[in-house]
From TrEMBL:
<comment type="similarity">
    <text>Belongs to the sestrin family.</text>
</comment>
<protein>
    <submittedName>
        <fullName>Sestrin-1-like</fullName>
    </submittedName>
</protein>
<feature type="coiled-coil region">
    <location>
        <begin position="257"/>
        <end position="284"/>
    </location>
</feature>
<keyword id="KW-0175">Coiled coil</keyword>
<dbReference type="GO" id="GO:0070728">
    <property type="term" value="F:L-leucine binding"/>
</dbReference>
<dbReference type="InterPro" id="IPR006730">
    <property type="entry name" value="Sestrin"/>
</dbReference>
<dbReference type="InterPro" id="IPR029032">
    <property type="entry name" value="AhpD-like"/>
</dbReference>
<dbReference type="GO" id="GO:0005634">
    <property type="term" value="C:nucleus"/>
</dbReference>
<dbReference type="GO" id="GO:0016239">
    <property type="term" value="P:positive regulation of macroautophagy"/>
</dbReference>
<dbReference type="GO" id="GO:0005737">
    <property type="term" value="C:cytoplasm"/>
</dbReference>
<dbReference type="GO" id="GO:0016684">
    <property type="term" value="F:oxidoreductase activity, acting on peroxide as acceptor"/>
</dbReference>
<dbReference type="GO" id="GO:0071233">
    <property type="term" value="P:cellular response to L-leucine"/>
</dbReference>
<keyword id="KW-0963">Cytoplasm</keyword>
<dbReference type="Pfam" id="PF04636">
    <property type="entry name" value="PA26"/>
</dbReference>
<dbReference type="GO" id="GO:1901031">
    <property type="term" value="P:regulation of response to reactive oxygen species"/>
</dbReference>
<dbReference type="GO" id="GO:1904262">
    <property type="term" value="P:negative regulation of TORC1 signaling"/>
</dbReference>
<keyword id="KW-0560">Oxidoreductase</keyword>
Length: 483
């Protein structure tokens, strides 16, 4: 992997204003005409996402003043406006909360030093081979005075950070295996020990960046203009076209519409039917438990084909140990995942207060972010208005938790099978387990009649449910250690 560093290129690109960034296409033209005496980078040209036409994303920021001001704040606070934020701009209420949390976690007073926070972010993102996030935080790490030597690999970082390798690995791939012994080893390592408050900060960072890596792949986020691979100094070579349009499929029409029609209506009809039979029949406790187990077992079955199995490249893998972990055939054989019942350990009743106690106010912020994601709705389904979508959104959230073995006793897991079809499940499973394998084809083939903003909405649900699930296991292990 080539890291973008605080090089001249970066300095030059930071002279671009935010308005320039919003008008990337017109910018190609403008910048080539403008003679300002310095070499000005041109975006490689495919917009913030490989999956979503650039003009749809830019449209949002042009029309909405609230978005403009959130973007301005983000730019002022972080000194950049990354492609993740631009794509999240479809959902301003969520974006606001997301940025607040990021700011608190990375920049405000807290148990960990600034460069350690970014280094942990790099470790977490590298676990899922997310070069995009690794590059972003390598830049930040260097900017806050991090030692460049650490970037050669985890073995060159202090022993205290190296000790997080195991936690990073288990949390990312099989968080249910985390025990209080893992926690104890980190807290009782003599001069290399972590404090409890530091450890909370660590697990929040790790879980955030694992799930954000999924979001990044799930939305096909492109490299930022100021990072490596995100810009070029060469003039556009395809005369008459903007390269953006070619690279991200702008102007491409959606598949065969008549073939798709009815997909949304069928789903809405199912929701209505489920609502009706809810009021009628109640399944027995055993039956409810069986439905959960069935769904959990199904969710463990792997979706990708043999030949896609790969070991991450050396470049990213140097930031974590044992790169083959998580890529062996655990899932192929349908690994047994134990069940965690929410009544025994939940975010609301247990995790939240533990975080708030050790990292004041942060629990609150995190809780707000979970709630916004969970409750977000515009009451739409593709072109239909005024629809209650709570049943569908809950099925998505609970399916992710089910993949992590987390069970809500009062939820009927039969609903998931009715509402989430095969291609949607393929997308979800890939995004959560092996996000680096998400392809444009997978993104395109689920929910084909829905808007891009709705697919981003789905990604937000997946990301937050994923983060909460991982966090729950980490916090449970910490609670067990403490009691
Ligand atoms: C994810 C989508 C089904 C969300 C839907 N458009 C809503 O506003 O609730």
């Amino acid at each position: 992997m080539r890291h973008a560093s605080a090089s001249n290129e970066t300095m030059e690109s930071s002279s671009l204003t935010m308005t320039d960034l919003f008008k990337i296409c017109t910018q190609c033209e403008r910048l080539s005409k403008k003679d300002v005496g310095v070499r000005i980078p041109r975006p490689v040209g495919n917009g913030p996402s490989r999956f979503i036409p650039e003009k749809e994303i830019l449209q949002v920021s042009k029309l909405d003043e609230r978005i403009q001001s959130i973007f301005e704040d983000a730019f002022a606070v972080l000194g950049r406006l990354d492609n993740i934020s631009l794509v999240m701009g479809f959902h301003p209420q969520y974006l606001e909360s997301f940025l607040k949390t990021q700011h608190y976690l990375l920049q405000m007073d807290g148990p960990l030093s600034l460069h350690c926070r970014h280094y942990i972010g790099i470790m977490a993102a590298a676990r899922h081979q997310c070069t995009y996030l690794v590059n972003l935080h390598v830049n930040d790490f260097l900017q806050v005075g991090g030692d460049p030597k650490w970037l050669n690999g985890l073995e060159e970082a202090p022993q205290k950070l190296q000790a997080l390798g195991e936690l990073n690995k288990i949390l990312a791939h099989r968080p249910w295996l985390l025990t209080k012994e893992h926690i104890e080893r980190l807290l009782k390592a003599e001069e290399h020990s972590w404090s409890l408050a530091e450890l909370i900060h660590v697990v929040v960072l790790l879980t955030l960046y694992h799930s954000l890596a999924s979001f990044t792949f799930g939305c096909g986020i492109n490299p930022d203009i100021h990072t490596d691979g995100g810009h070029t100094f060469r003039p556009p070579s395809l005369s008459g076209y903007c390269v953006c349009d070619i690279a991200n499929g702008n102007g491409e029409t959606k598949g065969n519409v008549s073939e798709l029609s009815g997909e949304v209506e069928v789903l809405m009809e199912k929701m209505k039917q489920l609502q009706e039979c809810h009021d009628e029949e109640e399944a027995s406790q055993e039956e409810m438990a069986t439905r959960f187990e069935r769904e959990k077992t199904e969710s463990m079955l792997v979706v990708t084909s043999e030949d896609e199995e790969c070991i991450p490249s050396r470049d990213v893998s140097r930031h974590f140990e044992d790169p083959s972990y998580g890529y062996k055939d655990f899932y192929r054989r349908g690994e047994h995942v134990p069940t965690l019942r929410v009544q025994d350990y939940s975010w609301e009743d247990h995790g939240f207060s533990l975080v708030n106690r050790l990292y004041p106010d942060f629990g609150q912020l995190l809780d707000e972010k979970f709630q916004i994601a969970y409750n977000l709705t515009y009451n739409t389904m593709a072109t239909h208005q005024g629809v209650d979508t709570s049943m569908l959104r809950r099925a998505i959230w609970n399916y992710i938790h089910c993949m992590f073995g987390i069970r809500y006793d009062d939820y009927d897991y039969g609903e998931i099978n009715q509402l989430l079809d095969r291609s949607f499940k393929v997308y979800i499973k890939t995004m959560v387990r092996t996000p680096e394998k998400i392809t444009k084809r997978m993104y395109d083939s689920f929910w084909r009649q829905f808007q891009h903003s709705e697919k981003v909405h789905v990604n937000l649900l997946l990301m937050e449910a994923h983060m909460q699930a991982e966090l729950l296991y980490a916090l449970r292990a910490i609670t067990r250690y403490m009691t």
